[in-house]
Every structure is written in structure tokens, then in C-alpha cells.
Design goal:
- The protein is of the alpha/beta class.
- The chain has a single domain (2-78, 112-183), classed as 3-Layer(aba) Sandwich (Rossmann fold).
- It contains seven helices and six strands.
- The chain has helices at residues 12-15, 29-36, 52-61, 86-89, 93-100, 113-128, 141-151, and strands at 2-7, 45-48, 68-69, 135-139, 168-173, 178-183.
- A six-stranded mixed beta sheet has the order 3-2-4-1-5-6.
- β2, α3 and β3 (68-69) form a beta-alpha-beta unit.
- It starts with a strand and ends with a strand.
């Protein structure tokens, strides 16, 4: 089955390089403009994170399609880092500990990155098991990175799967592994 993994469009927080996970931001005007400038692959089934930025992205790309909300495709909860960027956090000792852990430590008052990854991969496997046609998934960078790190036949680490806002991958999924056809 063909699966298009699409990261939501840009928000104001994304423009300022902030950690935007549990904050339910809408798309920025720049984000909307970028989405409208890209040609996206078609799909039969559309699966979307429940966050506003993903739903808005879905409605722009696929205005005539109904969508399925996948609650567990939400972005990671960045806890005390939420809504801040690296400049605002650079003198925060907890942030330095998180950086030193290579992003593996639990976010203070937030989510554990490994639990987040497991949540996303489990949600993907569960929701996709009942679908047998071409799919587009519109979710968050971290969500897509978690699924691709775990299931892609091309082995890369989590951060190497980063994709820009409004961009994504066209893939093939055989029920066990994901194969990348094209990045867009």
C-alpha cells in the first residue's frame, strides 16, 4: 500500500524555532502559502493528528476528503520546554542535560521520548491494519520521525528523519516495513 507521510504546515511557533508539541497552534499565513505552493500526492484514505495545525493542513491539501483523527499521532509533550526555542533555553540546566542525553531524557514535566515513539508506532500499526488502499497521514515532525525510524527499511536515527513543514515522503508499506519512494 502507498502511504504519504506529510508534516503539517508551518505555525508561528515553528517560524520562531520553538518547541511546539502540546500547544494547539494554527497555521501561520506563511505556512498556508507554502502548502498551497506544493503539489501533493492523492490518496483514498486520510489520517490526521487531532491538532489544529494538522487538521488545517489536511483541509487545504485535501479539501474534499473526509479524514480519520488518530489521537495518538499528537506531537510529543515538551513539558517545560514547550513554547520556547533554543535561545530561550540555552542557560537552562535541564535543557543542557536533555541535549547531553542526545534527546533521550524525559522532558521536565513532559513526555518521555521513548514512550512517545512507542505511542506513535503503536498508533500507526493499529490504524493502518484495517486500511487497504492509498493513505496520506498528516501529522507532526516527531510523529513521522518515530514511525520511519522504527519501520523504514532504510535505517537512520530518529533525528535523521526530520522533514520540513508541509513536506513529506511517498512510501510503500508491505505490512512490516516502509520503503521510501520519494521525498517532497
Amino acid at each position: 500500500m502507498k502511504i504519504n507521510f506529510i508534516r503539517h504546515g508551518m505555525t508561528a511557533g515553528n517560524e520562531m524555532k520553538k518547541y511546539i508539541g502540546s500547544t494547539d497552534e494554527e497555521l501561520s499565513e506563511k505556512g498556508i502559502s507554502i502548502i498551497r505552493s506544493i503539489e501533493y500526492p492523492d490518496c483514498n484514505t486520510l489520517i490526521v493528528s487531532p491538532m489544529k495545525r494538522c487538521i488545517q493542513t489536511a483541509k487545504i491539501i485535501y479539501p474534499d476528503k473526509n479524514y480519520i483523527i488518530c489521537e495518538n499521532f499528537r506531537e510529543c509533550d515538551f513539558g517545560d520546554f514547550e513554547g520556547k526555542n533554543y535561545i530561550e533555553l540555552k542557560n537552562n540546566p535541564d535543557y543542557q542535560k536533555w541535549i547531553d542525553s542526545n534527546g533521550k531524557n524525559t522532558f521536565p514535566n513532559g513526555e518521555n521520548p521513548e514512550n512517545f515513539k512507542k505511542r506513535c508506532v503503536c498508533a500507526f500499526k493499529n490504524i493502518i491494519s484495517d486500511i487497504h488502499d492509498d493513505v496520506s497521514i498528516i501529522a507532526h515532525g516527531g510523529t513521522l520521525m518515530a514511525v520511519l525510524e522504527s519501520l523504514c527499511d532504510e535505517k537512520k536515527n530518529f533525528y535523521d528523519w526530520h522533514i520540513g513543514n508541509a513536506h513529506g515522503y511517498i512510501t510503500e508499506y508491505n505490512g512490516e516495513n516502509i520503503h521510501i519512494w520519494k521525498k517532497f
